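Hi R.,

Quick one: here's the DUF2490 domain-containing protein sequence you asked about.
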Amino acid sequence: MISTASLYAQQARLHTTNHHAWLMYFGNHKFSERFGLHAEVQWRRHDLFAESQQLLLRTGLDYYLKNGARLTVGYAFVETYPYGDFAVANAFPEHRIWQQLATTQTLGKVRLAHRYRIEQRMIGNSATGEFENGRFEHRFRYMAKASVNLTGGEHPVFAAVYDEIFINAGKDVAYNIFDQNRAYAALGYTFSPTWKLEVGYLYQLVQLRSLDTTAGTRNRIEDNHTFQVGVYSTIGFVK
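And here's the predicted structure, written out as tokens:
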């Protein structure tokens, strides 16, 4: 039996489905025993590779703790383009300052990674496409990732899964305190101790900041199915 609460929840949300493709590079490169550089590029496309969705450029300064954990502080630039049924009026820029703690642990054959990130987001105005008269928000993110080698040898194939939740905060946040959730599964290949490749599928549930008012008042939800290719590098300038 469907409850009244369930029916209301369904009526209070307007869903759309998108299909994306994200090509990504992640690098963490030590230049001393304790310090390193984080470098990241993400080229995100809508309708698989047909249209622009987003460009993300992120960098940061890594500090390596004695227990293997890593602290990072950095900057990111993001350009978001109109796409899909809930398209914004214009492409708009975003500047982010971010802080992060990353930890790892091993349980048997499974390698676990935890990532705790805080972002201060200075978001441009999508109505004009300019940075002026934008918004300032905080966002809190937590990701848990597990990976396990499926083969042995110098170049093992591995499987990886993760889930990440995003929560917004700040006076400019109205209808999307819950921002999004990402669930991911992939297969990977180890080229060397410093280079890895992952090819996988990401399901992204996004709650947009504006409401739909065409038939009552409803939250607008994106169900995004994304093909991902990620290259990971840990080349260091010191041993």
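The helical segments are 4-11.

Cheers,
M.
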